[in-house]
Design goal:
alpha+beta; 5-stranded antiparallel sheet; 4-stranded antiparallel sheet; 9 strands; about 35% strand
Length: about 150
């Protein structure tokens, strides 16, 4: 009888542990597709999305941008980066081509446990303003990085 009680207790503990692990992987292991749409002012000024909380993931977890629409035209380029409190830069500038799909980039090690926003600027020296939109994620699932593409 002791054997069966011990076996049942072991199965229950294992079951709870596996469930807790699965839930933590699911929360961390998926991409959020947060819609963004805003007007980018003339160069060199930036505009920003609403901030989202980036947890304690460090540099091994990318941020994502999928630049789907630009009023400037198909295939145009905008500079994106993560912005932290007081407009501090929390990643390198990344030139992203409209329509190129989801891109995944490294954040700085300082971009953790804080609210960050997606920032964008036109890559051309122009006074024109353009509306842009797409999807982003401050802390995506682990993916191959596009930093060097």
């Amino acid at each position: 009888m002791k054997f069966y009680k011990r076996l049942l207790l072991t199965l229950i503990v294992c079951s709870i542990s596996i469930s807790a692990f699965a839930l933590s992987v699911e929360a961390y292991g998926s991409d959020n597709n947060i819609p963004y749409s805003f007007e980018v002012p003339g160069y060199p000024n930036f505009n920003y999305t609403k901030a989202e909380y980036r947890g304690n993931s460090g540099t091994n977890v990318p941020w994502k941008v999928n630049f789907t629409y630009s009023q400037e035209g198909t295939g145009t380029v905008m500079q994106y980066f993560l912005s932290g409190p007081w407009w501090s830069k929390r990643s390198d500038y990344k030139n992203v081509k409209q329509g190129s799909g989801a891109k995944y980039y490294h954040a700085y090690d300082t971009a953790k446990n804080m609210n960050v926003a997606l920032a964008a600027s036109n890559n051309n020296i122009t006074e024109n303003k353009y509306r842009i939109s797409g999807l982003w994620d401050e802390e995506s699932a682990k993916h191959t990085f596009n930093d060097y593409n």
